[in-house]
Amino acid sequence: MSSLSVNSELVFYINGKKIVEKNADPEEMLLAYLRRKGFFATSVFSTSNHTDVTTFLLFYDHLHDRLFKLKMNACLQPICSLHGAAVVTIEGIGSTKTKLHPVQEHIAKAHGSQCWFCTPGMVMSMYTLLRNNPQPTMEDIRETLGGDKQICILMDLIYIFRSMNSNAEHKNLKILFSFF
Fold first, then answer.
1. Which residue ranges does the chain devote to CATH 1.10.150.120?
2. Strands 85-88 and 9-14, how do they pair?
3. Which of 18, 45, 90, 165 could form a disulfide with 120 if both were Cys (CB 3.0 to 4.6 A apart)?
4. pLDDT in tens, the chain (180 residues)
5. To which H or E segment does residue 157 belong?
6. Are 18 and 30 in contact (CB under 8 A)?
7. How many Cβ atoms sit within 10 Å of the Cβ of residue 146?
8. Crossing angle, helix 102-109 and helix 154-167, to 10 degrees?
9. How many other CB atoms are found less than 10 A from the CB of residue 83?
């Protein structure tokens, strides 16, 4: 008679740090887990099930035996689904304590948004796009940023992208921000 072995250890990475959780709660979402572990930059915003600002980048190598990058909603992603994955939050791509990522830097220099509430989602969307596609088309850009635009920042986005387009030092950033 064979016995089924169940592994009660969840192993994944957050911003390059290995995480091992024993007996993880299968109902706990990544956003709650991130908050519990001290990652507070991922925003929580939900109206009519629109949660695009809770995005993060996921390098996933589970079952498919390949590497790919996704923009995901931390408030909808159970942590148990992350076994073998590497999660990068907005804190993981750059900060004022380390060094800002060029996307973060350009948004900050342009005084990016009114309340900064949606900014983490916009940054992660742009970062994910550039990681997946260093030469995005206008359609790629529109599709990527479409879900992150909140009413309070529509006009700010125009100024952000105009500023980034004129100040971009990196060719890919210039391409990314040229559509406004």
1. 102-176
2. parallel
3. 90
4. 444 445 689 999 998 899 999 989 999 999 899 989 988 776 665 444 444 445 666 665 556 666 566 777 788 889 998 888 888 888 888 888 888 888 888 777 766 665 666 677 777 877 887 887 877 776 777 677 665 555 455 555 555 555 544 444 455 555 555 443
5. helix 154-167
6. no
7. 10
8. 110
9. 15
- CA-nearest of 61, 43, 68, 62 to 53 is 43
CA distance 82 to 102: 28
Architecture (CATH level 2) of domain 102-176: Orthogonal Bundle (1.10)
Distance CA 141, CA 144 (A): 5
Residues of the chain with CATH 3.10.20.30: 9-93
- Assigned architecture for domain 9-93: Roll (3.10)
Measured CA to CA, the distance from residue 119 to residue 142 in angstroms comes to: 16
Residue 155's contacts (CB-CB under 8 Å, 6 or more residues apart) are none
Give the E-state strand segments of the chain in sequence order: 9-14, 17-22, 55-60, 68-73, 85-88
- Concatenated DSSP letters for 27-89? T-BHHHHHHHTT---S----BTTB-TTSEEEEEE-SSS-S-EEEEEETTT-BGGGGTTEEEE-
Q: Can you give the pTM of this predicted structure? A: 0.69
